[in-house]
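JOB MANIFEST
job_type = single_chain_structure
chain_count = 1
residues = 226
[input]
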Amino acid sequence: MGMTASQARFLTLTARKNNLEFEIQQTTQAKMLLAQQQDANALLWSNGMNTQHLYYSADGTGSVTEDMPRLSYQIVTGTYTDGGLDMRVRDQYNRLVVPSLPDPFPEDDDIANYVVEPNCLQADYFEENIKTGNWMIQQIDPANPGEWTDVSVAGSTFIYQGADSSDFQIAAADYDAEVERLESIDKRFDMRIQQLSTEQKAIENEMDSVKKVIDKNIEETFKTFG
């Protein structure tokens, strides 16, 4: 191989080696991001395994998975005759939370006293707002009939907070499926890095051989003109 051909080959190998190094770097970065996803997945699993819902129990007893219904807007605001608590829900601005405005609207009432929240009928949405304190449950004050007083979740005799075993099963199934998916991707990354490293080593060996040819050509050239 002549001097010019050897130099051209060396430059081509150098460019390929640089490309391989860049791809290895990118794939390694992807593996790091994947590891972060695995950590996030583990956190989601942990959160799912510790999910606590609010349940209603008239006497404070019963099984979450068998007897107690989820605490809902319908239970809280329903009448006693319909199995409800005959209470109400207010927001942080002391407005009554309603799925829709009363019809007919009371003549002596003000629309500013209400906030329309159609999603309050959804158990998860209702529960989240109660837990975060955005909404409060209120009952008639036994000591002052006609006055309303807040009911705290912790101090309530009819609200039970617990975890449903079905939540565990769902969280575990989701976690196992995601772990399997992420591990499959991680294995592909490892295989690709191994392939690239093998090719990189082969190129480095060839570069060493070409460099020896170039060095020999240079040495012979100096001998010719020396």
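[summary]
The chain is about 55% helix and 10% strand.
The helical segments are 3-49, 73-77, 123-132, 165-225.
exit_status = 0
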